[in-house]
C-alpha cells in the first residue's frame, strides 16, 4: 500500500497532491484521506488491519478495500474473541462467501491469528502495547521524495515479522508486516509533497509527546512498555 507516485487533485478549492494509488477510485481516496498512516491504538482496528493485510497477499489492496465491508460482516466486525472459536461449519460458510477472499489458508490463518492475538493481549495488556514497542512508541517519520525510495520492508518490519512468526501467527512475512505498519501509522510513508504528510507527521508527534508525559508520570500504562528492537 505504500510508496505510490503522486498526482494533483482539487481539495477545498486548492490544488494539492495525494498519493497516486489513492486516485484509482472513491474507496482508495477515502482510505488514503482518512486512514492510511494515522497512528492506530485501538486493538479491534489493529486486528482488522492485520487480517486484511494478510488477506491481501498475492492480491491488490484495491481488491481488499472492495471486500472490506464483506469481511466485517463475515468475521463479526473483527471480534477476535468470536473468531477464535469459529467452528468447522463457520469455516465452510466463510469459504462459500463471495464477499471475502475464499482461500482456505487465509481463512484458517485468521482464526489462528485471532487466538494468538488474544494471547498477546493477555501477556501485554493490549495488542497495542505489544505492537508499538517495535518503533519505541514513536511513529517513524520518513521524508521520501520519490517512489523508488520507499522500501518494501525495513529492519523494524523484519523484527516484528520474526516475533509474530515465533508466536505462531500466519501470513505475517516482513513485507506484509511493513504494509501493516504503514496502515496503522507506525510509519509515515506519505511522500513529502502529499497533502497528508504533515498532518500525519503532526499526529505522530502528538502521540509521542503524550507517551513521553506518561513515562515521566510513571503511570502503570507506560511502565509496561519498552523497545523490542535490539
Description of the structure:
- This protein is mainly α and 230 residues long.
- It has a single domain, classed as Endonuclease III, domain 1.
- The protein is 53% helix and 7% strand.
- It has a two-stranded antiparallel ribbon.
- Helix 2 packs across helix 3 and helix 8 crosses helix 9.
Features:
mainly alpha; disordered N terminus; two-stranded parallel ribbon; two-stranded antiparallel ribbon; 7% strand; 53% helix; 4 strands; Endonuclease III, domain 1; single chain; 230 residues; 11 helices
DSSP helical segment count: 11
Which structural class fits the helix and strand makeup? mainly alpha
What's the alpha carbon Rg, rounded to whole Å?
A: 18 Å
- Counting DSSP E segments of at least 2 residues, the number of strands comes to 4
Q: Numbering strands along the chain, what is their spatial order in the largest sheet?
A: 1-2
Name the beta content range: 5-15%
User: What is the level-2 CATH architecture name?
Assistant: Orthogonal Bundle
Amino acid at each position: 500500500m505504500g510508496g505510490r507516485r503522486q498526482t494533483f487533485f482539487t481539495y477545498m478549492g486548492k490544488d494539492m497532491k495525494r498519493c497516486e494509488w489513492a486516485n484509482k477510485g472513491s474507496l482508495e481516496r477515502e482510505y488514503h484521506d482518512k486512514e492510511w498512516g494515522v497512528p492506530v491504538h485501538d486493538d479491534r482496528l489493529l486486528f482488522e488491519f492485520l487480517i486484511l493485510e494478510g488477506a491481501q497477499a498475492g492480491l491488490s489492496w484495491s481488491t481488499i478495500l472492495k471486500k472490506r465491508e464483506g469481511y466485517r460482516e463475515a468475521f463479526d466486525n473483527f471480534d477476535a474473541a468470536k473468531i477464535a472459536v469459529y467452528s468447522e461449519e463457520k469455516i465452510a460458510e466463510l469459504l462459500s462467501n463471495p464477499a471475502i477472499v475464499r482461500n482456505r489458508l487465509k481463512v484458517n490463518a485468521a482464526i489462528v491469528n485471532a487466538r494468538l492475538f488474544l494471547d498477546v493481549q493477555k501477556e501485554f495488556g493490549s495488542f497495542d502495547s505489544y505492537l508499538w514497542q517495535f518503533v519505541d512508541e514513536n511513529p517513524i517519520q520518513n521524508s521520501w521524495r520519490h517512489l523508488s525510495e520507499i522500501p518494501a520492508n525495513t529492519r523494524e518490519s523484519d523484527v516484528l515479522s520474526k516475533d509474530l512468526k515465533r508466536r505462531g501467527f500466519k501470513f505475517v512475512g516482513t513485507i506484509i508486516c511493513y504494509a501493516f505498519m504503514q496502515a496503522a501509522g507506525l510509519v509515515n510513508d506519505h511522500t513529502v509533497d502529499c497533502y497528508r504528510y504533515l498532518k500525519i507527521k503532526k499526529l505522530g508527534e502528538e502521540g509521542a509527546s503524550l507517551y513521553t508525559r506518561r513515562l515521566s508520570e510513571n503511570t502503570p500504562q507506560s511502565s509496561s512498555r519498552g523497545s523490542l528492537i535490539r
